[in-house]
Specification:
By secondary structure, the chain is α/β, with parallel strands linked by helices. The protein is about 30% helix and about 25% strand. The chain has helices at about 20-30, 70-75, 75-80, 120-135, 140-145, 150-155, 160-175, 185-195, 210-215, 255-260, 300-305, 330-340, 390-410, and strands spanning about 10-15, 35, 50, 55-60, 65, 80-85, 90-95, 95-100, 200-205, 220, 225-230, 235, 240-245, 245-250, 270-280, 290, 300, 315-320, 350-360, 375, 380. The strands form six sheets. The chain has a six-stranded mixed β-sheet, with helices on one face. It starts with 10 loop residues before the first strand and ends with a helix.
């Protein structure tokens, strides 16, 4: 139930990102009174979409994976009007552009998976074994055992350096936001499994439609920043106080580490997305394109995935790079895009640039797949930094926080 403004709620959830929304929804379903306090003017945290000069602009390039268990449990996918990416990617290499596609879904487009094209016979055999294991084995088996880097796991699977450099490194750099393949191997196997079993897509209204659906019916107070936690609850930025039996901090890692001294928060990866506009789409299909020279993480024509991302007659191209924007970086990127798309990019207009400083937590091994939300009596924390840096991780962290709050308040 929602607490009236003058009443004291059972739980205050600070932050209306995915973790906070999931936590609040679970607590409400169990009969507790909850209030969600959000500093900004909308829900979603990093997962938001803006309308800008007639275009839909996600706050950094994002994709939505339908295979995540928490997604299946919590969301009505048909209401999101999902539009799929091609089940595969185009890899730009020194030997040309190759199509890496799921042959079980697009058998007619899998010609580049013949021996001698993208990979040799041994690599293809090892790749098939890796995919079969990760797709069919129970998830609990993928979570067991010692945790190594993704690079070590690929080597153990028999994948050659050539295939790592032509496909896995450039592709996974855009997934993990790091290009050394130092991310947890356990996390890699779970992500690879989700890609094999699900569909990468975008909602017709932008990725912000996902948290918007989660927030439906929840008691969320927007434009309500919190200054700090108090013994009884929180102190708001306007000087007001709000008390509660429990407080769940579901904010970005920066405020969480300040309000909860001693909290173990990992460093985060930074990513920048450039949004270019062109009259003619450089690629007439909804496919991610990666670059073996690692001049960017990935690029795609968003308006080929969801036509509504751009006004009629225009195309929107999103390209992401590691780190922040810098002097002359866009010019160098534009040159690289001209090469990989095989077109003249001088006439492209730079619509906007979006940098996300806390895009994804660093997840080097050994990486815990879940951590308790309890910080101190009546104080809890959730977010992707408490699990794995993904939609699944954020939602699962919120789920665990709600479960632990319920257990403690009902003792």
């Amino acid at each position: 139930m929602a607490a009236n403004r003058g009443e004291t709620p059972d739980v205050l959830v600070v932050g209306a990102g995915l973790a906070g929304l999931a936590c609040a929804r679970d607590l409400l379903s169990q009969g507790l009174s909850v209030e969600v306090l959000e500093a900004s003017d909308g829900v979603g945290g990093r997962m938001r979409t803006d309308r800008y000069e007639g275009f839909l602009i996600d706050r950094g390039f994002q994709v939505f994976n339908t295979a995540y268990p928490q997604v299946k449990r919590r969301l009505t996918l048909r209401d999101l009007r999902l539009r799929p990416f091609t089940p595969g990617v185009l890899a730009h290499t020194e030997r040309g552009v190759f199509r890496f596609v799921d042959p079980s879904r697009r058998p007619r487009e899998s010609g580049d998976l013949r021996p001698g094209r993208l990979a040799g016979t041994r690599d293809l055999f090892c790749l098939a074994a890796l995919c079969g294991r990760d797709m069919l084995a129970p998830a609990r088996l993928l979570k067991r055992g010692a945790d190594h880097t993704t690079r070590t796991e690929l080597a153990a699977a028999g994948i050659s350096d050539d295939l790592v450099e032509s496909f896995f490194r450039p592709f996974l750099s855009g997934v993990f936001l790091e290009d050394e393949l130092e991310t947890s191997g356990r996390f890699f196997h779970l992500v690879w499994r989700s890609m094999l079993r699900g569909t990468l897509c975008l909602p017709a209204g932008g990725v912000g439609a996902v948290p918007a659906q989660l927030a439906e019916g929840l008691p969320v107070r927007l434009d309500t920043p919190v200054r700090r936690l108090t013994d009884d609850g929180v102190l708001l930025a306007d000087g007001g106080e709000r008390a509660a039996r429990a407080v769940v901090v579901a904010t970005r890692p920066g405020p969480a580490s300040v309000w909860l001294p001693g909290l173990d928060v990992p460093p985060y990866r930074t990513v920048t997305t450039y949004y270019h506009v062109t009259e003619t789409p450089p690629l007439r299909e909804p496919t991610l394109l990666v670059d073996s020279r690692r001049r960017f993480l990935n690029t795609c024509v968003l308006s080929e995935v969801v036509p509504g991302y751009a006004p009629r007659g225009l195309s929107l191209v999103a390209t992401s790079v590691l780190g922040e924007d810098g002097t002359a970086r866009e010019a160098a990127l534009r040159s690289a895009l001209g090469e990989v798309y095989g077109t003249d990019t001088l006439g492209w207009d730079l619509l906007t640039t979006w940098t996300v400083h806390d895009a994804l937590p660093v997840m080097t091994p050994p990486q815990p797949l879940s951590r308790t939300s309890r910080v101190s009596p009546g104080r809890y924390v959730c977010g992707d930094h408490r699990a794995t840096g993904s939609v699944q991780g954020a939602l699962a962290s919120g789920t665990r926080a709600a479960r632990e709050v319920l257990r403690d308040l009902r003792r």
